[in-house]
Design goal:
Blueprint: H1 3-19, E1 25-26, E2 32-33, H2 53-63, E3 69-73, H3 79-94, E4 99-103, E5 109-114
Helix pairs in contact: 2-3
């Protein structure tokens, strides 16, 4: 650290000690000052499935779709994940309102149907 940085840091540390505030400061040289523990927060959420695996699984089914009806077994994934990804992919491919989905009663298969004429939910605009 530069001399001016060291002098300023020294004044700050003296002031904090005088006030009795707990603190933790890491200076420019990587030295920790103060008695507080430094916690490092992580934004990373633990993944339920390997990165991209559910998306690849759904896309493989949709890429091989024949006709307007597709049944996707959940496989190693949960039904919520499969339905969410299938809806996202269908919306991207065909547009909003151009498909419908339902789950089988045992929640082991997602059924997706492509609608020939997109479904308009709030009245036909034409």
């Amino acid at each position: 650290m530069k001399e001016i940085e060291q002098k300023t840091l020294s004044r700050v540390l003296t002031l904090l000690d005088t006030l009795g505030f707990p603190y933790a400061i890491i200076d420019g040289d990587g030295v920790k000052h103060g008695g507080l523990e430094i916690a490092v927060a992580s934004n990373k959420k633990e993944r339920r499935y390997p990165h991209g695996a559910p998306t690849r699984y759904v896309r493989q089914w949709m890429d091989n779709m024949e006709g307007n009806l597709l049944e996707i077994p959940v496989g190693d994934f949960d039904i919520d994940t499969i339905q969410s990804l299938a809806c996202s992919e269908a919306g991207e491919r065909w547009g909003q309102g151009s498909y419908t989905t339902t789950r089988t009663s045992d929640n082991q298969t997602l059924q997706l149907m492509r609608l020939v004429r997109p479904l308009v939910l709030f009245g036909d605009k034409k």
